[in-house]
Write a structure and sequence with these properties.
four-stranded mixed β-sheet; single chain; Zincin-like; 235 residues; alpha/beta
Amino acid sequence: MKWRESELGFPCRVVRSTRRTTSIEIVAGEVVVRAPSRVSEPVLLHWVQQKRPWVLKHLDRQQREQDCHEICLSQGAEIPLHGTAHRLQWFVGDSSQVTRLDNATLLVSLSSRIRRSESEAVEELLKSWLLQEAQSHFKRRLQLLSQQTELIPRELEVKGFKRRWGQCSSTGIIKLNWRLIHAPKAVQDYVIIHELCHLRQMNHSPAFWQLVARHCPDYKSLRTYIKSRNAWLEW
């Protein structure tokens, strides 16, 4: 069930269950109310209205945090790679390529024969390079982590999702978002382990999270980190 923004000042999704308490969770800008099935809708709506100042405060904070993590493609902009900020620099030369320098710089060479704006050419070239970097790195990490956890997928695909960091299909295919390459390696490993655990538990039940915790004890803080970086999904 969903309440319209006009009713509260923000959209809200309600999840009913046999739980005994009512709570509000704000994840990536989405307000989720978890409530017992026995609580009537008018009573629940009144309760959420009382919590409105708290919700608006946290929504504003999350929006400001997201704005801080947006990817900006301009000369000298910082592009995160494996959790480390790399300075973006580009110039027009004889060929198009991206070079990662030892001083944490991503140097982009643009061919003088480009037929579009420099910024568009930089974005296309940089995304292609980051995708290749992600495919190579994630393949190595998946092989190692699948051996350690004894959770073996059928295949790995690296995609450009706009709403998720990873996915595990019922046929055993692990899909990872190439934008995960921006995150620290520990966060990347958490997402990989998360998806591997879905090979055994295709849900987010307590048993699933127990399995995740077994292979990634710090998963809660790593999960919080990647959820706060949803702005990376937008570019």
